[in-house]
Amino acid sequence: MGGIRSISVDIRIIAATNRDLEADVRRRRFRKDLWYRLNVLPLSLPPLRDRVDDIPPLVDAIISKAQRRLGKHIRTIPKDVMEQLVAYSWPGNVRELENVIERAVIFSESNSLKLAAPLKNPQPAKTPEPFDSPFQSLFEIEKAHILMALEKTHWNVTGKGGAADLLGINPSTLRGRMRKHGIRRPATHS
Questions:
Q1: Domain regions of the chain by residue span
Q2: Nearest to 82 by CA among 104, 64, 65
Q3: Which CATH number, 1.10.3720.10, 1.10.8.60, 3.40.50.300, 1.10.10.10, labels domain 48-107?
Q4: CB-side exposure of 82: number of CA atoms within 13 Å?
Q5: Other C-beta atoms within 10 Å of 92: how many?
Q6: ∠ CA 24-26-28 to the nearest 5 degrees?
Q7: Within its chain, how far is the Cα of 113 from the centroid?
Q8: CB neighbours of 126 closer than 8 A, spacing ≥ 6?
Q9: Rg (CA), the chain
Q10: pLDDT per position in the chain (190 positions), as tens?
Q11: Dmax over Cα atoms in the chain, in whole Å?
């Protein structure tokens, strides 16, 4: 930055997400070009609830790190505590496990780990009642709304009382959204 010579660098970017980026690309919620740049060596890691054998070593590592930082000396993990940790579904994955263990280290008064609060698996969400009509995506709603404005203004995009004015957006923004939705003026409205 600011120099007169180019300096070559060799870097690697590590990106992590809990989203399905490939599906997001298909839904146009994530840039395809960025997906191809990031998708060099994909590593998929199942959620912690599907890797219960990983919980005991993770607990040991988290305790070791937390006790050094907090000046505590946890020597034992009671069997019932480890059973609770293994039985829990961990909706927050490893971050939630870290928080629970750190809290337990803080609240443990002896050299034996004691959970600060019992772990309760979340209740399954009630299945919503089906809608009477199919639910539309925002993309579909926006397209329908633009078409209604264009029909109401007889396909007049600009000017006072035009579709852009009616929608409260800049005419160039409206034209961009029309392109995005594939909206073209019908031949009968020339």
A1: 14-44, 48-107, 138-181
A2: 104
A3: 1.10.8.60
A4: 15
A5: 13
A6: 65
A7: 33
A8: none
A9: 28
A10: 678 888 888 888 788 887 888 889 999 999 999 888 888 888 888 888 889 999 999 999 999 999 989 899 999 999 999 999 999 999 888 999 999 999 999 999 999 999 999 888 776 655 555 555 566 788 888 888 899 999 899 899 898 889 999 888 998 888 988 988 888 888 765 4
A11: 83
Question: 22-54: buried (b, 16+ CB within 10 Å) or exposed (e) per residue?
Answer: eeebeeeebeeeeeeebeeeeeeeeebeeeeee
Distance CA 103, CA 113 (A): 10
Tell me how far apart the alpha carbons of residues 178 and 190 are, in angstroms, rounded to a whole number. Answer: 17
pLDDT of residue 79: 95
Cα atoms found within 13 Å of the Cα of residue 10, Cβ hemisphere only: 0
Model pTM score: 0.52
The pair of three-digit structure tokens given for residue 34, joined into one six-digit string = 């960025």
